[in-house]
Description:
The protein is mainly alpha-helical. It is built from 44 helices and no strands. α4 runs antiparallel to α5 and α11 (201-213) packs antiparallel against α12.
Amino acid sequence: MRTLKQRLAALLVAASILATAGCTRDVNARKQKFLESGNRYLERGKYAEAAIQFQNAIQQDRSFAAAHFRLAKTYQLQKQWQPAFRELSVTVQLEPKNWQAQLEVANFLFSAKQFQDARDRAALILKENPDFVGAQLVMATSDGELGNLTAAIQEAQEAVRMARNEPESYLTLGLLQQKAKEFHEAEQSLQNAVSLNPKFVPARLGLGSFYQAQRQWEQSEAQYKAAIEAEPRNLISRTSLASLYQAWGKKELAEQSLQETKAALPDDPDAYMLLGDFYADSGESQKAIGEFASLYQRYSNDLRVKKRYIRLLLARNQFDLADKLSEEILKQNSRDAEALLDKGQLLLHAEKPAEAVASLEASLQANPEDPVAHFQLGVAMYKTGNLARAESEWQQSVNIMPSVEAEENLAKLALRKGDLKLLESSASAWIKYAPTAPQAYVLHGLARMRKGDGPGAENDFSEAIELAPGNVEAYTRFAELRLAQKRFGEAGRLYEKALSFNAQAEEPLYGLVTLFLSQHQPGQALRRLQVQMARIPDRASLEFLLAQTLVANQKQQEAQNALGQAIALDRNDVPAYLLLAQLQAAAGRLDDAAATMERSMRENPRDVRSFVDLGVYEERRGNWQKAQDLYKEVLQIQPNEPTAANNLSFLLLEHGGNLGYAISLAQTARGEMPDSANAADTLGWAYYKSGVYDYSIHLFQEAIKKTPKNSTYHYHLGLAYQKEQKVEMARASFQLAIKLDPRSSRVDEIRKALEELDSSQ
């Protein structure tokens, strides 16, 4: 007999069980109630409300497969594909034998181009359900995409056997037969699909597409019109008809069809924007702008309309209105990737590349895979002088989506950098995407020419000329190839051909002058240049070329006159100032040379070349303190300018300046000019001054190897040998230094060093 305590415990357990059972019954009732409510909303087309109810059901029971499946259906009807696929995936995990859900997953995989996965999923369904037509069709279409056309057609024929009265099977079979070029059989299958259900729009579209591919325009038109009649709000049917008219050459009917589409579907953005896109694609940009202006007035809250309108305005250079609309979007959402991209392009147009960089980088933060944003950021970086980043952005752009524009920019950047590998690869890609672009072949040929591939370069230049017989650069580059091959007659004819297409082109004229000079015909070079200059007078660049040619003809004074004319035409022509000063200095007129450089500095205060050359002239005039100041000024503008760093280092070493700073400057110069004998000597002199004689000897020897007849280098080497107690080697270096330049300003120092050697023995 149980005690009172035992009976109470049993009652408590029973009560607990009853409570739990009641709770479970409540949960099941609630989730079922939410499911049924969601289904009712779904039937009435109230998708948002249906989704909420299905989500409520799932909150009651996370493993409620039916609710997950219905929620997936709701998302599909709303075209929310990612959440739909997520819910279907949960459904088949919870209920693996929900074959309809498995089929939906297979369809999603097919749409994502995961054809093998879609086929495997269909095979799984068919293993348990051999007569599941939907799975059989997925199997057939997947095999078709995988290239297994024979198997695909057989599988579609099996689908027809399974459901002889279903048009979907005949439609799939017909499309696969068309793909296999079995045109008679395809037409019969597609007609069967239509006859089984004349209002089945996909069958009408399939047959219409078949006839369009066969250029049977009237039959195609009839099918598309029948599809529209069956479902007047079906956008695909209407766009198919408009596309047919375009292919048929009936532009007016295409336009009329899209106007009818816009009127029939006034609440569908994909429909009412088609007409404006049609105008834009047809090159009728003014009509396109007018259409989108009208749409913007009517659908002012439609972001897609506003963004398309902005792009059209940008293309037509209507920047003020484009900027206004872009700002409207950014006020509502400062992180809108497309608006930030548009803003960046507007800033680029306004020549504000630094601000454009900020906007475009913000756009890429919001949408990192936008190839256009990467391309435009590359343009902005290029304009700010950041060539490495420009190259990186253009590379990312083509990695995401290959484009002619990006490959073209990469090729031109490679040419500027002298990067032959990048030039060849980007020009090759440019040819791939634009096989009729002559400039692509020119640059590809240039890369091959510079790599020593003469036959390959010749093929490219010939192709460019064939594509564009008047392409001046193609003839010019071809002439350069012939000049390098010493085929002078052909080179001359090619340069002349280029000039016959454009008498004002400078590169072929430069080439002709170079050709004559390389053949030691300076007079012929001068005469040909003067003939051409008579046709195009008053051009600074040609006056500069004339000066160079006059120098080759030993007519220095006339060359100086030509340079004066070049400067008068273009006061920013720094090379003209530099050459004029060199000629003046060579004539012993150092004061005039210095004055010329001072004028160049006034006109071009950020160009360091004039500062450097003036420093050299001041050194030669004995004004080493002024030269030192000039070199310091250069390094403030351009910290790694090698000549200024080298010369300032030498002056500091010669005149008791800071030894550590002098060594640092010499190392900078050496790093920037690794092949310069002067830089090697200066760094060697710096190490000599700091007592590191063994390394200074190595650097002096390197300088002498590159410039064997420089007296100063031999003198420095002799001093280093002397410090290392290598007396005979020091004596030989000193004696050679005197022999090379007996009038050197250092000859007394060298003789004194020789006397010290003799007295030390």
